[in-house]
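User: Sequence in, structure out. Go.
Assistant: Echoing your sequence, followed by the C-alpha cells.
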Amino acid sequence: MMSSTGPYILMLGCFDTKGEIFAYLRDCILTTGERIIAINTGVMGTTDRFHIDFESDAVALEGGISITDLRSKKDRGLAIDVMGKGAAKIVSKLVAERSVKAAIGMGGGGGTYIALSAMQEIPFGIPKLCLTTLAAKDLSRQIGNKDITLMPSVVDVAGLNSIIKVLVEQAAASICAMSNVVVAGNEHKRGSIAISMFGNTTACVDKCTELLKNQGYEVLAFHATGVGGKAMEALIREGFFDAVLDVTTTELADDLCGGICSAGPERLSAATEMGIPQVVVPGCLDMVNFAHLDTIPVQYKDRDLYSWAPDVTLMRTNEEENEVLGKMLSQKINRSAAPVSVVLPLKGISQIDAAGGIFYHPEIDQVLFESIKKYVNEKINVIEVDAHINDVEFAETLVKTLLELMQTTKVGFIKNGRG
C-alpha cells in the first residue's frame, strides 16, 4: 500500500503483460519529481519491475469476485468488466481522500476499457490521459462526459521499441505538465450559471448569456446533443453551478423516441437533486434528432421530417408525444426543493417552429403547454410569454425570472443560517 498521503499521479494498467512498458512510463514520471500510485488491472499476474500499491487481487475483489475465480472462468469479457468496476471503486476512494492529482493509463482494447472505466470516477479538472491503440476509434461511450485525453500509440502497447518509447516519454511529460497547471480563478464573478442550447435556440441563449454576463455572472453553455446534456448534469452534481437556465430540453424528446441526442433518463434531474434554482423551457421539444435520412426508424418514415444537415434529420413531435413530454418534464422538476419556474414561449419553441417555419404547428405546442400546466405541482410557477423562443423579450423574461429565483434562494439560505 501507499507509504504516505498524496497527491499522486495514478498509473493504471495491466502490469501482467505490459510490465516493461509501464516500468518505463513510471521512470519517466518519477524523474520529474512526481509520485505515483500504481494499480494493476491485469488478471493473469503481476510484475516485479516496480512497486504496486493495489494488486489485481484487490481490484478483482472490489469488482465482486476473487482473482482466483476470475482466472478459472477464462472469460475475457467478464474479466475486463470486473477489473474495470473494481478499479473504478478504488479510484473513487482515492479521489475522496484527495490523493489523485492526475491519472494515466495505457493499453489495447481491454486495457483501454478498464482505464477509461476507472477514470469515470475522477472529477472534472483532474487531468486524465490514456495512451491507446484505439484513439482513432469511436470511444464516446467509454469516455462519456469526462475530460479524458486520448493519445494514439501508433504501434501496439506490447513492449518497448523506438516508436513507443517516444510516445511514452511524451505521455509522461504531458500528464506531469497538466497535473501542475494552476488554473486562474475568476474572483469577480457573482456566480456560475449553466445554460443548454441548440442551433435552433442559439439566438435566445446568446441574448441570455449577454444579459447575465452584464450582471457579473459566468455562463457556461452546453450543446444539447446528448453528450452535452450529460456533461451539464454531471457538472451540476459536482457543484460547479449556482443555477441552471435550461433553455433547450430537447434531449427528453430523443430519449422518448430513440433519437441520437438522448442524454438518458437522468436528464433534468441534477439541479433538482442538488437543490439549486432552475428555469426550465420546453425548448426544441418539437423535434427528435436522427442521423442521415436513410437511418430513420421504419415506424417514423411517414412523419414530418426535415434535413437540418446531410447527417442530421429532424422529426416533428406529434400531439401524443407532446402530452408525454409535458408529463415527463413536469415530474422531473416536481421533486425539487429549490425554486423552479417553467417559462413557455407561446409563439414557438424552436427556430423552425415559428410562423411560416417547417415545424410550425401551434396546436401541437399547445398540447405540450397544457400537459406541463396539468402535471406541474402548485409550487412551480408557470409563466406564459406571448413571444417566440428566440425573441429578445423572451430572453429578457428568462433572465429576470432566474435572477429572482436566485435572490429568493439566497435570502432563504441566510434566514436558515447557511449564508
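User: And one key feature?
Assistant: The two ends are 41 Å apart (CA to CA).
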